[in-house]
Design a protein that fits this description.
mainly alpha
Length: 102
Amino acid sequence: MGFKSFILKKTLQMKGVSGDQAESIAKTIEEHPEMAKSLKALEGNKEVKALLEKIQKEIEEKKKAGMPEQYAAVQVMEKHKSELAKHREELAPLMQLMGVGR
């Protein structure tokens, strides 16, 4: 694992990503650097960024209310399914990193 991958892994872990998932993401980015550019483009898309922030906030609220994270994520993602489908192309690299659809 290169230095950039190591830093990425540690940064993800500091943001709350599990060690295994952080390692998997860092490895994928190292093997497919073009994916990093696609992910960076998401940051510039205000509509997608707002949607992801809204989803994250709703998941956090459900977790604080005592719901397990996985259940909260499924519930919130289901709620925003049509919005996510609208941005399917832009979100494809992120979904690939997250292991959705594997």
